[in-house]
Amino acid sequence: MVTLFLICQLLSPEKVGTYISNMTKASRMRNMDSLQFYYRELRKAATPPGRNFLKTYANGLAIFLMITSDSLYAKEQYIDSAIYFMEECTKLNPDFSDAWAVLGSLYGMKAIKNLTQLAYWGKKSNDAFQKAKSLDTQNPRTYYLEGISLFFRPKAVGGGINKAQKNFKKALELYLKEKNPLSWGYLECKAFLGFSYEKANMKEEALKIYDEILKEDPDYEWVKRARKNLTN
């Protein structure tokens, strides 16, 4: 495992990317002990955020992955903490598309948690996604995370499964072209595409996607359960 000390000393995108890869693998395995370890270590390294946007981003991403991996962490205190680090990251590097994309997703979570402020947080979410696109039209994580937002958003307010699927498919195309050491989310995006097929009663398409994912990562816990439920 790449140590956080080494990463914070070198601060190269490649080293931080390796750390992010370890975190996303732990997330897919639902290995919360590992994610909690990363969270604690990154808090020590990035609180206060300091001048380096990469470790600030990695800290926020660690919390984001905890939130999306286990409902126990899908609480406002964690969402607010992740927002803090991502907003700090955009202050340190306003042109970093990934941070804006994750903020779009986090603001969407705030909208769900605060229905009386739905319009406020919904606009902030949309604005963050648009900012991410304006900075990098080829960033797959923007389309992937926006796709999740569209998936859970009612059709009456611009969401829906069909729109979400278009986003997921576009993101997957971009992932295959991407050469970014900080890349993450390819298998997770593919899993959401499979889930969208499942919700659209496209069972065969969903099973095909799940099988493809499990060939690449046999330890992806959510996909293993989804496939099992679909075949029972």
TrEMBL record:
Entry keyword Membrane: no
Superkingdom of origin: Bacteria
Spans of repeat TPR: 187-220
Matching InterPro entries: TPR-like_helical_dom_sf, TPR_rpt
Sorted UniProt keywords: TPR repeat
Gene3D superfamilies associated with the record: Tetratricopeptide repeat domain
Protein name: Tetratricopeptide repeat protein
Organism: candidate division WOR-3 bacterium
